[in-house]
Amino acid sequence: MITQVILPGPLRRFADGENTVAVEAETVGEALGELVKKYEEIGERLYDENGEIRKAFNIFLNDESVGSLAGLNTCIKEGDEVSVLVALAGG
Prior knowledge:
Elements: E1 2-6, H1 9-12, E2 20-24, H2 28-38, H3 40-46, E3 57-61, E4 64-65, E5 81-86
Parallel strand pairs: 1-5
Antiparallel strand pairs: 1-2, 3-4, 3-5
Helix pairs in contact: 2-3
């Protein structure tokens, strides 16, 4: 199924300036994998050397963190959006 992956500003330059990228996938992990197939440079920034999402990013399905769902195995339904957000820290 086709879903939109919404990119944060820092990754857009590696996706030809696009803020959303349409991909075909059944899970959040597949969606991110398809994104990286289209734009390899995003993969270098999104994933660490162990293939895990870098701590600098949070992944959401619609308005919910995938960490509170099934992680990257979270299934995508028609109309869902995957968002890659820059993690904020501070106090």
